[in-house]
Amino acid sequence: MSLSFYVHIPYCIKRCGYCDFNTYTPSELQDGATLEIVSNDYIDAVLKELEFAPQQIVPTIFFGGGTPSLIPARDLGRVIDEIKKRNGLTSDCEITLEANPDSVTLEKLESYIKVGFNRISFGMQSVMPHVLQVLDRTHNPANVEKAVSMARAVGFKSISVDLIYGTPGESLDDWRQTVEAALALDIDHISAYALIVETGTKLAAQIKRGDLAMPNDDLMAEMYLLVDQLCQEQGMSWYELSNWSKPGHECKHNIAYWRNQNWWGLGPGAHSHVDAKRFWNIKHPTAYKQKLFSGETVIAESENLTADQKRDEAIMLGIRMREGLLRSDLSSTQIQTLSTYGENGFVEMLQDRVLLTPTGRLIADRIVRELTF
């Protein structure tokens, strides 16, 4: 058995208006504090938590956030080194860094390569200034191309960009320009996510007041089908509901999630899944550090998955992927349900498996609900 690691870096310089992730600006953690002050012993705490994890070999490590690229490479490298020393890494271990294109320089990128990173994912979101403004994103769109070029120059083997579609005020042509600009970059992978308006965010408040309006479902569907078409035309194949890549550049870490393999999440609010047990950490970074330095557990809650839950999750996750669902894993009732969708062009019924078509991906959640009801 293997064990992937997710490492959560819970810091951002500024909170984006749509974001409800477990991230904090320095001033939210301590009045007048700098990033250096609030994060100076954070890696020490992460290494303390690592002591509780199983010692299985590691095929992937993913540093997410927050903005991991705000943290010096030498500090992130301490985590990689300790995992390597303690667990061992596979010969092709994928080690990913999420990065804000404004937060990297050539020197920083070189230092990340030196400590072991080989894959980087930039938060691009859009090339349209008015879309970035609604999202409260701070980066300059021109810096994405510069960051990608520098990352390739220093030796990153795989480069991805994250895009968001369905922002209030974004047209189909706006989205086309964003996707075409992304595909013109020297990248290997694109993730494209529909904007979800989360309760309690600045964006949710703006929509509730009527300052902004969400696009309708038809436009959202057109946006999804457009990114799928443009990626396929440029040699990036769809391999998961929201992800496209060149051959051999699929994100192995996320595939571990979708296949329900074992992973351990290090950091406040991080979730883990080990041998059909799911657990998650306390959310606040200060409490997280205090408990670890006191020798206490940081697990907030846990659950053991039942046979029914495992079966339902296998369907929910498997249907998202290009391999689809094996007929042998489905009941006759489920196959009949899928056959009806097949008659309407939403799924492809092959001899041994069932795959979603592009239009079927638009209603994946609905299909899953019917299969697992």
The helix/strand class is alpha/beta
Anisotropy-based shape? globular
How many independent structural domains?
A: 2
Bin the strand percentage.
15-25%
Name the CATH superfamily assignment of the largest domain: Aldolase class I
- What is the CATH architecture assignment of the largest domain? Alpha-Beta Barrel
N→C terminal distance: 32 Å
- Indicate the mean pLDDT: 95
Compose a concise summary of this entry.
Pfam families: Radical_SAM. With 373 residues, the chain is of the alpha/beta class.
Task: Give an account of the 3D structure.
The chain has 373 residues and is α/β, with parallel strands linked by helices. The protein has 2 domains: 4-258, Alpha-Beta Barrel (TIM Barrel); 308-372, Arc Repressor Mutant, subunit A (Orthogonal Bundle). Helix content is 41%, strand content 22%. The chain is built from 16 helices and 15 strands. It has helices at residues 26-29, 35-39, 42-50, 73-86, 106-114, 129-135, 142-154, 172-183, 202-209, 217-233, 252-258, 285-293, 307-318, 332-343, 358-362, 364-372; strands spanning 4-9, 58-65, 89-99, 119-125, 158-165, 189-194, 237-240, 243-245, 263-266, 271-274, 277-281, 299-304, 325-326, 347-349, 353-356. The strands form 3 sheets. It has a 9-stranded mixed β-sheet, sandwiched between helices. Helix 3 packs parallel to helix 4 (73-86), helix 3 (42-50) crosses helix 12 and helix 4 runs parallel beside helix 5. The protein is globular. Belongs to the anaerobic coproporphyrinogen-III oxidase family. HemW subfamily. InterPro entries: Aldolase_TIM (IPR013785), Coproporphyrinogen-III_oxidase (IPR034505), Elp3/MiaA/NifB-like_rSAM (IPR006638), HemW-like (IPR004559), rSAM (IPR007197), rSAM_sf (IPR058240). One of its GO terms (molecular function) is coproporphyrinogen oxidase activity. Residues 1-237 form the Radical SAM core domain. Keywords: Chaperone, Heme, Iron, Iron-sulfur, Metal-binding, S-adenosyl-L-methionine.
